[in-house]
User: Fold this.
Amino acid sequence: MRSHTKKVNYRVAERDFKYYIFDWDDNILHMPTRIHLEKRMPDGTWAPHSVSTAVFAVVRNDKDNYRPPGGVWDNAFSDFQDYANESESRFLRDARDALGKVLSGATKPGPSFDTLRHTLVEGRLFAIVTARGHEPESLKKAVRLFIEMALTPDAKEEMLANLRGYRACFDRLTDFGSDEAELEYYLALNRYHAVTNPSFKKWMSGTAKGSGAAETAKQFAVRDFVEHVIKTVSRTGDGAWRNPVSVGFSDDDPGNVTAVEKYVRAELARQFPGVKFCVYDTSDPSLNHGRKLVVSGQLDLGL
Assistant:
């Protein structure tokens, strides 16, 4: 289909470059996926005890009272992996369930739900960084599902006009593919990191030092996204660098927030002085969009 039949928002070239990194569970959606633990009973015995991701963030360091089944953490997170015999990823099924409940008004969305929706409509780059172990393709499919379910027809049309605008202004396109092709191109530009996925852990161990703890792995994922952003922006030409570049990270786990904040201050802000960094602690349900920590620069990301 010829480009003149499709809306193109050429004014995206005037925007600053705001990019976002999102944890998924309890940050975007409150997922029904359960973590399978054992809990110490008053008589000293251990009994099966499944918890939500929000509860796990609170009890995960209480080793006196909680432990994984058989002492093996893979058993605790059996529902946080993909399996070859699945017709559909458990992550996608749970995301569909969680989105349905939000859209019906049965449950509240996560504190960064609206920010992800706004990010997608504007066609901005983003990363999903989660402690889950799913394949990147599963995470990407969940974002596509989010677009299908959480965006109105008008919002989808606006998103596609913005995506074509970026392609026209920075890739110099005058002819565009189908709506599906342009959406797939956009989704493929982004990063999907499940940091306990075996492939991610192998990649990280081959390129970075440090433990395999979730906090360290998320630091690695954040760095990858920042480097990806710099590389992508560099392709737009020298003139684009006049626009401010900013990166926001949001997570509901205080341990991850602290680890990323320290990493940004100690490493990323120094290595990328031209980038504005903000970290959002979304662990407090009384704060609609979380607690904002300006790590570098004073740019308000509008979260």
Summary: Confidence is low (pLDDT under 50) at residues 297-303.
